[in-house]
Description:
By secondary structure, the protein is of the alpha/beta class. It is built from nine helices and 14 strands. The site of S-adenosylmethionine has 20 residues, from strand 2 and helix 8.
Amino acid sequence: MSVNWYKNLMSTDLRGRVLLPWRQETFPVDWQQEFASSAPLHLEVGFGDGRFTLRRALENPTESFVGLEISSASLQRGWKKIRNHDLRNVRLIKLGAQFAVQHLFAPQSLSSIVVNFPDPWPKEKHEKNRLLQDSFFKLAASRLKPGGSINLATDHPEYLAFARAQSQLSGLYDLLEPSPPQAVFETKYALKWKDQGKPLYYQVFRYNGLASPHFPILERPATMPHALIQGQLPETFDFSKQVLAYGDGHVILHEVLKSMGSDDETPAQEKWLFRATIDEKDLKQQLLVVVKRRSPDELIVRLEPFGDPVITKTTRGAVHAVTEWLLSLPAGIKVLERNY
Ligand SMILES: C[S@@+](CC[C@H](N)C(=O)[O-])C[C@H]1O[C@@H](n2cnc3c(N)ncnc32)[C@H](O)[C@@H]1O
């Protein structure tokens, strides 16, 4: 897939704003401002090709709809479907449901969460990957309005039974079986399973309004996490992949790249970039940590803003991992300050 579609997508989107650049948003997103409306707000997890999202947004022009996808191909398909309709009441986001629900939505902000034909993860050892499990039901209850609901459509009786059982563990949901809205059984996957003669199921989990656990929303730090170190880096050094457990996840340092140019502050050859992956349960990020000279004797180790990283505990660990690795060099480096 070419990079151009994504560039086009971003530039057109900023005019019509179907796609939300969530990394640049405040947490939680101010949806009333985003949609210029205080109408009911609905979330759809895994919109696939977006036909259900489009149909609902067209049929309910006074309500607001947010769609989540983790697949870039689906995001592109959904965006292509929606972009020509001049709709103001839909936003699409490329992000997993667990992170999005916790950090992009304020408590009691959602009227419904729609999950049409979620990946069933049929093997018992993969059940932990299913979306509709106790932990998600609790998280969702903390963001739904009392009386709001999670609406599930599935072809998978085991998934249905699993979700029903999991929903009852917290005591926060009532089970309802209304007849499904027509569009639910006309999604791409609904039609595929119908063609194969599979029965389709529809289940509503209504939040009863009892107190749900607290799920904190990430705060954005005012400055990028960094450390100040004293000393000289050697001209060359060996580097091999580093993996460090930090916070609730792992930091993987893949490689170090030496800059060939200078910037406003740093002379040429005095800047190194560490390419890192931050692997957390609900979010995986690629980012850069820079090490660069600030004065004849002082270097800064800092997360680069490139790529708009979201600063989580484990993201801060990237600065820690690089700092510790530099300390392990036989160069007599000292830490002056840790600010991460
Ligand atoms: C089986 S497809 C169903 C697509 C669509 N709802 C339909 O009915 O045609 C499941 C979709 O959920 C997406 N998905 C899986 N896990 C997700 C998550 N945690 N957050 C958001 N989307 C997810 C997948 O990328 C996939 O497109």
